[in-house]
Backbone:
């Protein structure tokens, strides 16, 4: 995947999903969506004003492509939430710029179980790249201090705790950015970082001048061709990777801590409510309640919420129902989004999604966390923590440091 990413494709997405790795390079078609228009750039081009459901607008644009059997890969910014019915904030301007960018690739390479499948153009070139031996010295990351801006973040957390105790909302995720003082080689960062992480999904991409590499701990939603839907909220966090005894003690604390259990339980309840909007209500169920998932430098409480799409509903409806992820926004969502708009800087891709979608109705969307971002000469990390009534500013700041440590040790200078 790294070799293909270095091969000179203008735009590309690498997506790892449960042992299957896909490289999507070059643009056979691009679909973008902003607050008012959905645009298609392909053999046939269009610029269409949309209203109502942004997911329906995206589905119609993709279905209009003169590309049989299309598959699309790309990104959804956190600001997409402001376009969703019921989540738009009064007095807040619609987010500017493209909020969704999807690539239907000219060249698609899938590697699963040692089998390589190549679709589209440049197949001979791809085979040559894959035959090249891996040579050269291992990339050398540069240390990054993740403990900056502690006072500013603690002040915002304290304000959120005050608002929660006043009854304005139950939970909110507040985040902070860490500026990296050098340009990063994101391909090398992805190579090194993937070896040091155990993600639910991983991704590496360059789309429209923006780059990102990440090791997503959580799936926002998956939809199979037959309409089976799943989301897996992760809420409740402790450090991991500090030695067997410390990890075991942290896990015991995680599984018995009232604040962490409450934070997780309300997230699972919200996920159930969201799936019932688009699934047959009787099909919505919870599996593996409050299991523990180890994700790089942290461990989380995790539950799987599943259902079956109701008649007439699509994968894009399911994405709208659960977006933004409850574990990256808060409860209730509208009130927590208001708090995020007041207390967080613009998130852009952070806590949005990287996704793969197909003509067969399937969709797989990973939550964009534990990532490094690079755009317009600026490189940064970002992490957040879930604030509830029993939170403390010091502990939530420490949680952001633990999460940042899933990526910070692996950033390789350009």
Residues:
């Amino acid at each position: 995947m790294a070799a293909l990413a270095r091969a000179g494709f203008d735009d590309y997405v690498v997506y790892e999903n449960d042992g299957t790795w896909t490289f999507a390079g070059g643009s056979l078609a691009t679909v973008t969506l902003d607050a008012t228009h959905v645009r298609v750039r392909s053999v046939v081009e269009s610029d269409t004003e949309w209203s109502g459901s942004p997911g329906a607008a995206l589905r119609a644009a993709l279905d209009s492509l003169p590309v049989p059997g299309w598959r699309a890969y790309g990104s959804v910014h956190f600001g997409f939430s402001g376009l969703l019915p019921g989540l738009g904030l009064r007095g807040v301007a619609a987010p500017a710029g493209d909020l969704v960018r999807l690539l239907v690739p000219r060249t698609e390479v899938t590697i699963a179980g040692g089998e390589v499948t190549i679709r589209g153009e440049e197949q001979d070139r791809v085979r040559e790249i894959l035959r090249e031996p891996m040579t050269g010295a291992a990339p050398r990351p540069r240390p990054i201090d993740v403990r900056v801006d502690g006072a500013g973040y603690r002040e915002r957390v304290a304000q959120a705790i005050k608002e929660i105790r006043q009854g304005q909302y139950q939970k909110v995720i507040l985040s902070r950015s860490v500026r990296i003082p050098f340009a990063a080689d994101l391909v090398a960062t992805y190579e090194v970082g993937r070896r040091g992480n155990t993600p639910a999904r991983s991704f590496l991409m360059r789309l429209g001048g923006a780059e990102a590499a990440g090791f997503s701990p959580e799936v926002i939603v998956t939809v199979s061709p037959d309409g089976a839907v799943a989301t897996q909220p992760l809420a409740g966090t402790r450090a991991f990777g500090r030695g067997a005894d410390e990890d075991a003690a942290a896990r015991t604390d995680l599984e018995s801590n009232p604040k962490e259990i409450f934070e997780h339980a309300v997230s699972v309840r919200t996920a159930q409510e969201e799936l019932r909007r688009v699934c047959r209500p009787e099909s919505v169920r919870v599996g593996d309640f409050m299991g523990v998932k180890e994700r790089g430098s942290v461990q989380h409480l995790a539950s799987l919420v599943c259902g079956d799409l109701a008649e007439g509903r699509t994968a894009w409806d399911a994405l709208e129902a659960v977006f933004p992820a409850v574990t990256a926004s808060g409860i209730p969502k509208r009130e927590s989004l208001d708090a995020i708009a007041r207390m967080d800087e613009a998130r852009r891709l952070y806590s949005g999604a990287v996704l793969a979608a197909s003509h067969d109705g399937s969709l797989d969307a990973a939550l964009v966390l534990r990532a490094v971002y690079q755009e317009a000469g600026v490189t940064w990390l970002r992490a957040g923590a879930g604030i509830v009534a029993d939170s403390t500013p010091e502990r939530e700041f420490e949680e952001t440091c633990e999460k940042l440590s899933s990526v910070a040790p692996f950033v390789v200078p350009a």
In short: The mean pLDDT is 93. The chain is about 30% helix and 35% strand. Residues 2-410 form a domain with the Anthranilate synthase fold (CATH 3.60.120.10).
